[in-house]
Write a structure and sequence with these properties.
The protein is mainly alpha-helical. It contains 8 helices and 3 strands, in the order αβααββααααα. The N and C termini lie far apart (45 Å).
Length: 191
């Protein structure tokens, strides 16, 4: 039975898609970017890299020096990994997964991670379809939430729980507005 690929493993594959990197380089990316919510701990990153290597998604890149400029003798300390064809195929398949209502309700960060890795890994047309599906699912979900909010307001007119629920809806509507703008900008760029 194949082990399920974790979101962290997909994130690592996405970071390795444009260029080979060491585990240390990947940890720095997690520590210094918006990907910070993924653990930059060696106890998370290195086991995930070993799983990707065992799966055949990445391989040591012996001909590539690590980004810090040290030569071959440093390669033993900082092993540089490159995404394999199998890894690129796995990453592409993940990026192309359809977006579901559960995705927008429960896995919004993963949707954004997928979107972040689309350029260079899938055709622009696939990115546009991705955003269109995201809009459709997010629009339907926010409409459901708005209906639930009205029911809550009828029972609890001014309650902190209602206000918190309202804040969540506003955040999702902002995400929906962003998706519409992003799709329009990408469409304009393809003309």
């Amino acid at each position: 039975m194949k082990a399920k690929t974790s979101t962290l493993e997909y994130a690592l594959a996405g970071l390795l898609a444009p260029k080979a990197q060491s585990g240390y380089d990947l940890r720095k990316t997690f520590a210094t970017t918006a990907m910070r919510h993924y653990s930059d701990s060696p106890g998370s990153i290195y086991p995930a890299l070993r799983r990707l290597e065992a799966r055949g998604w990445i391989a040591p890149d012996a001909g590539n020096d690590s980004d810090d400029g040290h030569q071959r003798e440093n390669a033993r300390r900082r092993q540089v990994f490159a995404l394999t064809r199998e890894g690129r195929d796995g990453l592409t398949a993940w990026l192309m997964l359809p977006i579901t209502r559960d995705d927008v309700a429960l896995r919004l960060a993963e949707i954004m991670l997928r979107f972040a890795f689309m350029d260079g890994n899938v055709p622009r047309a696939a990115t546009l379809v991705f955003l269109e599906r995201f809009e459709r699912e997010m629009d339907g979900y926010t409409r459901e939430l708005r209906a639930n909010l009205e029911t809550m307001r009828a029972k609890l007119p001014l309650h902190t729980g209602v206000l918190a629920f309202e804040a969540g809806i506003h955040a999702m509507e902002a995400q929906l507005a962003w998706a519409r703008q992003a799709r329009a900008r990408l469409l304009e760029d393809t003309r």
